[in-house]
Amino acid sequence: MFAIAALLVLSLLGYALDRELAVVLRRQQIEQLDTKFEDINYVLERLRGPEQWVRIHAKLDALTPPDRGTQYWILSDDPQIRYGNALAEIVSLSPSASRVGELRVGDRPEPMLIRSAYFPADARHAALRFIVGIDSASYARTRRDFRSVLLASISGGVLLVALIGYLITHWGLVPLKRLSKEAHELSPSMLSQRLMVARLPAELSDLAKSFNGALDRLETAYEQLETFNADVTHELRTPLTNLIGQTQVALSRERSATQLVEVLQSNLEDLERLRAMINDMLFLARANLGERPQQLVRTSLAAEVEKAVEFLDFLMDEASVSVRMKGDAQAPIETSLFQRAVTNLLHNAIRHSPAGSEIIVEVSVGDGQARVSVSNAGPVIPAEHLGRLFDRFYRVDSARVNSGESHGLGLAIVKAVAAMHAGSVFAASHGGITTVGFSVAISA
Amino acid sequence: MVPYLPFSAQDGTMKILVVEDELKIADYLYKGLTEQGYIVDLAHNGFDAQHLALEIDYDVIVLDQMLPGLDGLAVLHSLRALKDTPVIMLTARDRIEDRVKGLRAGADDYLIKPFSFVELLARVQALTRRGRKHETTQIRVGDLVVDLLARKAFRDGSRIDLTAKEFALLAVLARHQGQILSKTAIAEMVWEVNFDTNANVVEVAIKRLRAKIDAPYHSSLLHTVRGMGYVLEDRTAR
Fold first, then answer.
1. For the complex shown, is ipTM > 0.90?
2. Rounded to an integer, what is the distance from CA A337 to the centroid of its chain?
3. Reported pTM
4. pLDDT in tens, A266-322
5. Of the candidates B96, B193, B226, which has its C-beta nearest A311's C-beta?
6. Which of A233, A282, A388, A392 is the most buried (most CB within 10 A)?
7. Is B104 on the interface with A (CB under 8 A)?
8. Which domain holds residue A267?
9. A347/B199 CB distance under 8 A
10. Do A272 and B201 touch (CB under 8 A)?
11. Of the candidates A266, A269, A313, which has its C-beta nearest B165's C-beta?
12. Count of domains for chain A
């Protein structure tokens, strides 16, 4: 990764440098060429007579360096004027040729950069063409050298960056590797295990903290599920044991039809109870999975509470308790779910109210939620029980387990209904009054 | 006393097709419905069901949704293309979408497994009765007279003093006289409560009604069928 990035960046840089160098070198070459050309051009323009050609030739000889890096040519039909090795290509150069051109000279590997000027025939001399050429070999060499240095530095740079990158990643990832190892070692049998946050760099400690948070929530959920499974097993085992035992006893001897019918009836009662429990557990499971109400209707909560009160009227009459209602609110609810929750709360309150007392149902609004609270007189529920009232199968009074009247899911259903309406549940108990309730969101 | 499911003579020889791949359920449905006086045909898969439902004119079809071969909804679709036979769907998946799917496909009613036989029977009877609507204003059960219009009840000629809900309960029982009504069905019909609850409201209500319509008289009309529900009928004639 690092190597590829470095290669890319350095190559681009190298290419740009190389281009720039080429441009600079070319300009220098042309400047050099121009200087030499102007020198001789000046002399030629001021030419006074043929006798000067010998002097000019001598000067050109002197100006030509031994390595022949600069060369001069004068082309003309007049052999007296002619200078340098006459070359076919040079002869063919037209007067309109560009100011600067290239010329390949047989024994040189690099072309020569040339500039020429044409002097038409006049009184003093025949027509002639003057050419200055400089060898570009040294420039080409400079460029070649530069290129190889560049290439070497790029390769070196890439290797270095790759190495440094590897080391950074390696050392930088040590904490991550440790985290990964720790995470790998997490198992359901050691649920309380957490990732060590202390020695982590800031970027990772946030991650580890959120991960630990998720583990906390999972542990809670897992524990709840475990308890739930244990509870379900227990709750289902009791009626099943009854059913099996009762049926076996009934079949172990000759029985009259009436006796058998009685057994069947008793079985049926147990089976109906099992069915109700399974249906409720299914309901809770679906609510837990985030199922939402299908048909929300914005309606008066007090009116819905009224319906639940009417349904339970006979029970309240039997228990000699009365209901007083306070307040109202409008909220989007699925009425049957809402009524179910209120019925469960009221039923609970009726069962725990002393005769002659009053149950107060209050509907209030606050924090974007409509709250329904049901208060009844009765023994104070200790604080340690309050928080768990809404747990499945949780009973304050464990002696009531097999009362048959309740299977301990009533308040769990209230909680599920509240959750389905984006609300919550609450419970308080002091001064001989117990208040249990739930809320629903006011806006859908 | 040994309770019994009363013979539903009023339904005559109604024909029912029961489509259920679970043999135990199919067996008891066959037995129970036959004993109720219905003529019952059984189908254990979707193809047989489709064939029978299209060939024979049934009064009601009890159709399981999950079937081998052709599923219940497919059978319903092909049936509805040709016939209006009332259909009760049985479904184990009590998700609302499934119910909606079934009803949209043309089912007349649905029951969620595990369902009670009494419940199924009540729905079968409701569907077979749907055709003949001669709602009487007065129902007579033995020497009990329920005047639905005046909302009054008399027994042995004397007026029985009932609260509004007690009368509503009596009216529901009287309208279905001779038919066992489950607590769930009663709660739904009297209080429009269509959810499960542990509250023993129906039991208490029945107790109160019984104290008024039965206790002062020599014979009982309101009977408990243990584990199943309640039935209002005159058993003295038998």
1. no
2. 38
3. 0.62
4. 888 888 888 888 888 888 877 877 778 878 889 999 999 999 999 999 999 999 999
5. B193
6. A392
7. no
8. 202-288
9. yes
10. no
11. A313
12. 3
